[in-house]
Amino acid sequence: MKHRIENVARLLSLRVINPADIIVTGINSLKDAKETDISFVSNAKYLKYLNSTKAGAVIMDYAALKDKLPLSGVNFIILDTKDPYLAFAKLTHLFCEEKKKPKEAFISDKANVDKTAVLGQNVTIYPNVFIDKKTKVGNNSIIMANAVVGKNVLIGEEVIVYPNVTIYDNSVVGNRCIIHAGSVIGSDGFGYARNGNKYLKIIHSGKAVLEDDVEVGALTSIDRGVMGQTVIKKGTKIDNLVQIAHNVTIGENCVIAAQSGVAGSSHIGDNVAFGGQVGIAGHLSIGNNVVIAGQSGISHNVKDNETIAGSPAIPIKDWRLATVLFRKLPELLNFRRKLHGDKGGNE
Q: CA quadruple 165, 170, 174, 175: dihedral positive or negative?
């Protein structure tokens, strides 16, 4: 796909600092860009590449970076914005959107679609897909090879289901959701009751619900409710290798990074951000606009607007101080020993 630079600037509402008439054909990093590529810089550690980049145009916050640009001038067009990363995200849609979808809808003759299933208009079904009884697939949705969709599933419009995804019976997938390869929606949760020396399985009769515009990364599991629902609310983005247990509610527009886990019946508010490897204990309430640093363990309820870190998690200012002090413990111990004339050994 080709675009004149002025067209890109207009579509993305960018200000052109040093206009020139060029045609761009793609996007790339500053380090790897060619003369016909657009790149961007939103992190100061990448400024070193501005001296050598071959990009034809670079998106940046010009007011913030103009004093850090190469003294010898620049050989690229500057596209100015206060939020270069957001502009880059929009740019990917401009150049990459069509790559995700087949040119024409089709239903493979190697797919197994139950006669009671209802497929909308322009639905694409790849080979070896299985769709069970009374399931509905909305208009313009795509289900890729080897996916399995159970009974009474509702899949909305413009959904993309990547290969080897399994969607259990009665699950609901909203409009424009994306489910990446190998993920499981609606599996049984980890529910057992002790029965003497054995465990009795608790039958899960609930469902899993993804609201509109949810994206689920690869190899992620979202369990059905024991009774009722596990709900991922609209706009939330979940990374790879995440576990969401039964009867959890994840609020709107949350971001959950890889290898995180939420135990059963916990409630996560809106606009919450998890770093990688965050663990949430069961039956907790996490407020709105909470930020949880990577590898944190949450064992208590968290109020709105808090930023926390550590395990057990504490306010991030306290955690940073504690981390500094922890690293100084050997030094402090040696100082104590010298002060009291200790020679070491057991205290």
A: positive
